[in-house]
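Hi, here's the filled form for the chain we discussed.

Project: internal
Contact: R.S.
Residues: 260
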Amino acid sequence: MKGVWNRTTRNAALLAAGFGLAMPCAAEEAPNWKEDTLTGDWNGARARWSEAGVDLSIGLKADVLSNRSGGIARGTRYMDHWDFGLKADLDKLWGWSGTTAFIEVISNHGGRLNETHVGSFNGVDNIEVGKVTTKFFSAWIEKSWDEGRYALLAGLFPVDSEYFLTDATAVFLHPTGGTPAEIAQTGQNGPSVFPTSSFGVRAKWQPNPKAYVQAALLDGVPGDPNNPKGTHIQFNRGDGTLAIAELGLRPEAVAEPEAA
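And the returned structure, exactly as it came back:
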């Protein structure tokens, strides 16, 4: 069984307790720090850094889950997922027009409820990992042209940060709410999804806010299958290539008729 549980879902209830510090997506504008984050604007420091081109974020998800019947054994386990992100607008910093860099470090701790107590093919919690570890999960640079209509990204890139994303999955704890099992459970060390990503390139075309087309090519074996701890970028013979493409449509919501 591969230890590939998707990270795109979020907190739900399965005898679980969770709490979080809001973390902006790498491709989005900085949030309203006072309203959208638990720790606020750090006495104005976050807003000043963002204006200068640097967004720093820290996220935490913690779950306590218990298996009360069925599966392998009865028991309760705690697990947590730390997420540290640094986004840099290189246009503001160095005058590199349309260029953004992003670094993300993840750190996972706690028990393995599915592995030791449940035995489900798809897992039970989207932050469960096979080994306690800290690693680089994202480290990429992106260049965009024509007011963002065209973009090219290169670096350490988890495809589940952009592919298979829907607003509806954001409320689910279970891994199946994110990357489908027919993709998440493939590959020698899984595809480039949580908890291990691959080096690759992604091209994107967004002709208007309602539609986009994106495609990516990545190393077929993320990390080191023999060493799940830490960060490993290897290009070995026989790794193969992961190729993925997506067409996205964002239709406008139908407005409700006004009351008479």
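Let me know if anything looks off before we file it.
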